[in-house]
Design a protein that fits this description.
Blueprint (H helix, E strand, L loop, with lengths): L4 E7 L2 E9 L39 E5 L2 E5 L1 H7 L1 H5 E8 L9 E9 L4 H14 L2 E8 L2 E10 L2 E7 L21 H13 L12 H14 L19 H15 L1
Parallel strand pairs: 1-5
Antiparallel strand pairs: 1-2, 2-6, 3-4, 5-7, 6-9, 7-8, 8-9
């Protein structure tokens, strides 16, 4: 595993050098863009708008437009803008997990202690476990400031990158139902169905089956076969059918058990 960032955790006056590793990997299938006529791969080019010629990577810089003029930004300018945030995951306060809306969670990373930082790293890890709290921090990764929560998991500290609340789009404009009233029987059946489907959660049982099914289809097409897939028609349950469908769902679950 290759570290994608190195710096320190700032814990009060304690400085804990760490390395950051991506904790996830994509299970999606990568596709190439092809010319429909002869299946030749499509090449993406960086074209100068004025000359119409392709520009090599080494001649490309980043710029920001102000008053019809571009200001060129060099790579070290990003660090100069906030040197501390570029190098330190600064814990500013602690909170319990339920205080953080799940909609803000974005991406997890592993934090590994650098050499000679094992003791202070382990101390923070154990303190987080004992307190039941998460460390709330901010830092800069890939030229973008993010909020983060530091959470203990087994013998390591997980950094979960979270969105700023201002990045969440407002709910207005969504066609949401008004508050409904239900019969006691409807609600009781729905609660009973939830109880029947409630088990001890084991996320290891959940696998990405879509990617595997998609690969089967790709292999069949490579053999010149055309798989027949039944089209799925989704019909919403009408209000007057709701009781019958809830009862049928309970019967189905009982039979499966």
């Amino acid at each position: 595993m290759r570290a994608i960032w190195s710096g320190s955790i700032g814990f009060g006056l304690v400085n804990i050098p760490v390395k950051l590793y991506s904790a996830t990997e994509s299970s999606t299938i990568s596709f190439n863009m092809l010319n429909k006529k002869d299946l030749s791969p499509i090449k993406y080019a960086r074209i100068d708008e004025k000359t119409g010629k392709e520009v090599p990577w080494e001649d490309i810089v980043k710029g920001y437009k102000i008053d019809d003029e571009y200001v060129v930004i060099e790579e070290d300018d990003f660090e100069k803008a906030a040197a501390k945030k570029s190098k330190i995951i600064e814990i500013t306060n602690f909170a319990v997990e339920k205080e953080i809306p799940t909609s803000l969670f974005e991406k997890p990373y592993y934090l590994e202690p650098a050499k000679d930082a094992e003791h202070s790293y382990s101390l923070l890890l154990e303190a987080l476990k004992k307190s039941g709290k998460l460390g709330i921090a901010s830092f800069v990764l890939r030229n973008r400031e993010s909020l983060a929560v530091l959470k203990p998991m087994d013998n390591l500290i997980i950094l979960n990158q979270i969105r700023f609340p201002e990045e969440m789009r407002p709910k207005r404009g969504l066609n949401l139902p008004e508050k409904k009233t239900f019969s006691a029987k409807e609600l009781d059946l729905a609660l009973t169905l939830i109880d029947q489907y409630t088990t001890k959660l084991n996320l290891e049982e959940y696998k990405d089956t879509y990617t595997a099914e998609l690969m089967k289809l790709i292999r069949l097409k490579a053999q010149g076969k055309s798989p027949k897939i039944a089209k799925l028609k989704l019909v919403p349950t009408k209000a007057n059918d709701l009781m019958a469908q809830l009862k049928a769902s309970l019967d189905k679950k009982k039979k499966a058990a």
